[in-house]
Design goal:
Elements (H helix, E strand, L loop, with lengths): L3 H19 L6 H20 L3 H24 L4 H34 L1
């Protein structure tokens, strides 16, 4: 099984790729790349090397990416092709970043119940 921090890094790289494809023809491409592509790339590097801060911030940013995806999918039908992958990836990023803590939380309850 792949380690959660490595899975998180891969998911962040895929998200950066989706955003790069989404904004490749944008009039403000440089700004879009700084705002949408750079953060997941930087967090992917941190997550790959088990940085707790990168894992935490990927979950926080994941909430924003999810909201952005919902807003775009709902209000811009032409953007749905890119918005839906962002939605799915945001949920996966939040879960991958939270998985170790959730596993520890519920593993402790199982041990105590025996």
């Amino acid at each position: 099984m792949i380690a959660p921090h490595r899975l998180l890094a891969v998911l962040l790289l895929v998200l950066a790729g989706v955003y790069a494809a989404w904004f490749r023809d944008d009039a403000h491409r440089a700004a879009a790349m700084l705002v949408f592509v750079a953060p997941p790339l930087l967090m992917a590097v941190g997550a790959w090397f088990k940085s707790r801060q990168a894992v935490f911030w990927s979950g926080v940013f994941g909430l924003g990416w999810f909201c952005h995806g919902v807003m775009m999918a709902w209000s811009h039908p032409e953007a749905r092709l890119h918005a839906w992958p962002v939605l799915v990836l945001a949920i996966a990023i939040i879960l991958a970043g939270s998985w170790p803590g959730l596993r520890n939380k519920f593993a402790g309850k199982r041990r105590g119940a025996r």
